[in-house]
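User: Structure tokens for both sequences below?

Assistant:
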Amino acid sequence: MFVLFCLCDWSLIGVIGADEVKSVSVMEGEFVTLHTDLTELHEDDEILWKFAAESIAKISIEKQIFSTFDDVPDGRFRDRLKLDNQTGSLTITNTRTEHAGVYQLVRSGMKSSSKTFSVSVYARLSVPVITRDSSQCSSSSSSICSLLCSAVNVGHVTLSWYKGNSLLSSISVSDLSISLSLPLEVEYQDKNTYSCVLNNPISNQTQHLDITHLCHTCAALISAAAAAGSLLIVVAVGIFCIYWKHRKTDQEGKCYILLLTIN
């Protein structure tokens, strides 16, 4: 009966110290601390930190061991691990996306327990870019401005268009290093405020739309294209005339070239 009681008591301790899972997010390049939630360690405490089943740090109060194993599993933690000798908490400095994953804390001694941390590391976001899609300007009577908001080399993000504070459209991606684009059509005389937002769970970047700058009328674009074509014709004729004059007299040809360069 005594043996049975001891087994039941041990089983109860195991349930009390049952594994907990905590999600932690950090921006790439910053530090993250995985807390033991202890105020101090006892003399018989042993703390073991693991990443992907590999031991990366250990504390033994009785044996006076306070060690980090920077070179396992592949050297990704070299010069990045710090232990709090009072609480056993583990800090990872200068984080990279390769440090994302599952970390396990195992505490043994009179009070045994374990905790699991799921760490997500997010890359820093760049400001999205808004451009005009001039290929959609097919007629001089069109009053629609076709826009494209883009972000390159992103992962685990959402790209969205907003009209004021109202969401118009969005697209999300969970892959790493991918390019995203999201279209928007507005009237070139629209007076509303629009913005394109790139965000992940811990940060965001916003680009505001300047309709006056980007959304010229199609008629204006066509006129500008026509004017540019006319200018090319004038330049071509001028070059031909200079060449013809140059054949008649070198002095006169050089004078024409000088005048064209100054104008």
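Moving on to the next sequence.
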Amino acid sequence: MAPGTSPAPGYEILAHLARTGWLDLYDTWSEERQCRCVAKVVRPDRRHEERLRDRLLREGRWLRAFTHPHLVRAYEVVESPEPLVVLETLTGETLSHLIHRLRRRPAARDVALLGVQLCSAIHYLHGQGLLHLDLKPSNVVVDCGHAKVLDLSVARPPGMAPPGVGTFCYLSPEQARGGPLSAAADVWGIGVTLYEVATGHVPFDSGEGTTGGMTTGGMTTGGSVSDGDDWYPQLEGPAPSTASRRRLPHDLALTIDGCLSPDPAARPTDPELSAAFDATLRRLSGA
């Protein structure tokens, strides 16, 4: 859509922000709120795919209903003539941008604080009956130490799922394998995100030096759900320890490593993980 276009009554397109495998994102002016916001729409070449229209509307309804300080907010969901979700404009930058911009890794205290905030958002989602399933640095925006989680496009209730739902380098082993998924999959997502923030490296990649990968069934590249024949390094062995990549306080490194246990039952629960990060944060802050 060109600048000046009205995608829905009360909104005006200012600029095109980004294109994913199935979405266009626009910087948009809200006449009612007298502020900028972000409009998410299905790409014109994929509007014939009913499942994508439904996915966008479902995500928008969730984000409009949910109220949490560490989740992005949706202002409005428009169903016709074309599905559109209006989100708050976030200041700051994604963790993925931050990782590549900073010359030095974030301080241990900042890593622990981020852990507390991610646990808070994910615990809330789990209380709403949803798993996020795509936690990664590009889906977290941070501004002045305050994190917000984005993108519920592949979120679903706990239960059976096909192989490969999520982003290649960030999948838990059970997501890569397919089968029953539980809150432990998002504990893995918190751990893999903090691992990259703390060390500057993903614990698993495609073997080609990638630092991300395709989101299957999600919004990064569009993609379709894997047929189960793909190779996943997460299924080959455990992640290198955090301590092998960076010197961190022992308890913080062990907490991150615990999130990346190949066995979902061996990972900490949401409350246990939050308590561990909070204890580390208090110790590092001298509280």
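User: Anything stand out in the second?

Assistant: The helical segments are 50-65, 95-101, 108-127, 173-177, 184-199, 250-259, 270-285.
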